[in-house]
Amino acid sequence: MDKKLTGSVSITIPFHDVDPMRIVWHGHYVKYFEIARCELLKKIEYDYPQMAESGYLWPVVDLKIKYVKAIEYGDLINVTASLIEYENRIKIQYRISNESGDVITKGQTTQVAVNAKTQELEFCSPQILIDNVKEELKSYD
Amino acid sequence: MDKKLTGSVSITIPFHDVDPMRIVWHGHYVKYFEIARCELLKKIEYDYPQMAESGYLWPVVDLKIKYVKAIEYGDLINVTASLIEYENRIKIQYRISNESGDVITKGQTTQVAVNAKTQELEFCSPQILIDNVKEELKSYD
Amino acid sequence: MDKKLTGSVSITIPFHDVDPMRIVWHGHYVKYFEIARCELLKKIEYDYPQMAESGYLWPVVDLKIKYVKAIEYGDLINVTASLIEYENRIKIQYRISNESGDVITKGQTTQVAVNAKTQELEFCSPQILIDNVKEELKSYD
Amino acid sequence: MDKKLTGSVSITIPFHDVDPMRIVWHGHYVKYFEIARCELLKKIEYDYPQMAESGYLWPVVDLKIKYVKAIEYGDLINVTASLIEYENRIKIQYRISNESGDVITKGQTTQVAVNAKTQELEFCSPQILIDNVKEELKSYD
Fold it and tell me: Does a structural domain hold residue D120?
């Protein structure tokens, strides 16, 4: 995967995400990651509605966040999600930066395919995901 | 309805519900109301899982909140939900008080029955709700 | 106030705001209202940071929401906040519509000025708010 | 640290934490961790209010979560936070289990001391934290 699939979104920090220390409460970053992840998944036409239609659930099984700099009410952030693995599971890396380009947060999520009917874990990704990723990457040549 | 069906819950305010003014952000009270409402609905065995099984959705169509006093991190509150109408819709009143018994917040929600299959609004409450409420009230005599 | 001060924002419904009924959980609308309200307050240069600088807190003391239509994951909504009172308190009305222009939700919040030092309620709005509103309205002529 | 400082809390999963897959949305676990962490910090009398009084902020700089089993609306979970490092930073491990004792989630947070005045990072923990931890551990003998 030399060419990376990415999804990006800009978010202005809302008042209700800010804690008594006047910085964004650390748990809210999980939402910012998700918004960028869904942008990425839309590109390969395999966002939540398509996942459900394909007969698979994709629970997050692992989450890591490193907080580098704090952000405050009204700050404008850019969140980028990059697909780094898709053949056996979906692994996505995140990077949040502020308007000056400083790194604010880095993170990673891992999702696995679960058969919606049997509730069993799939050890390879469903063909539809693999096909959609390859199709999208082809357009990058 | 002389005898009122109620559901109550005690909640210690968590850090992540507190805003930069060091008080609970006003939108979080909707969660406190819901926790007490579900306690009430469990009493009549008609909480979310039973609603779904009975073939009805019960969206909230109206919400009103009056904020009387602010609360802070660590405060212990008591939330009481009282059923005040059920024959055509579910109308519930809420009262939040602090440890000294002071009223913190008052509120009200209205929910209507929607047929899950047809997505149509029901103008009378499903029989199961009426029966369950009457059964529960009988036990109060 | 013939000419109304308004603030508007477009929001794409994120996955984490959707409940098991596959519609936006009713409490999340309070966040959508707030994002539009802050756009309105920025126009008169009296958003949260300026409120704090001016020595006043502006807690929400009353909230009303009417839910007309449900919205789902990925829906694009427009939220408009309109200032309808400011001389003694801040009263704002909200209207959420979908891409077809259908009304989704209507609401209203009331905020009162509290002196940050004395914690006492002010029965008239601080002069800075009145001046800023008039200044902004003047530019509409 | 043979004897470990721990804080525990029981939580009944509220409806508003459940996503369209009918399981708890992965970001909400950060809240459950925090509630248990604050129970732990209260034991050593160094919870958020005491942190602020002591002149330090303790931002979370690292968060890791492993999701083992899904949980649903109404499930009763037990969340335990264990202090595993405090001399240079606060490192806490979390374990969530269900009523059958199955592990649901494991996690870890790292917090560092930041001088509230200078906004500079402290490389050793403030003496008050070290003293309070030792005092509490002494009582375990």
Answer: yes
CA distances from B130 to B67, D8, D140 (A): 32, 40, 55
Q: Which of B56, B65, B105, B115 to mutate to test the interface with C (most CBs of C within 10 A)?
A: B65
A92 vs D13: CA distance, rounded Å:
28
Q: Is residue B116 part of a domain?
A: yes
B27 touches chain C (CB under 8 A): yes
Number of neighbouring beta carbons within 10 Å of residue B139: 8
Do residues C84 and C120 make contact, with C-beta atoms less than 8 angstroms apart? no
The answer to whether residue D11 sits within a structural domain is yes
Complex ipTM: 0.95
What DSSP string runs through B8-21? EEEEEPPGGGB-TT
Nearest-CA neighbor of B30 among B79, B97, B89, B83?
B79
B48-71: pLDDT as tens digits: 999 999 999 999 999 999 999 999
Per the CB < 8 A criterion, the answer to whether A99 and A76 are in contact is: yes
C86: CATH: 3.10.129.10
Q: How many domains does chain C have?
A: 1
Choose the closest CB to A34 out of C14, C48, C74.
Answer: C14
A137: in domain: no
pLDDT on residue D110: 98
How far is the alpha carbon of A27 from chain B, nearest alpha carbon, in Å? 8
pTM of the complete model beyond 0.80: yes
Query: C60 is in which domain, residue-wise?
Result: 6-130
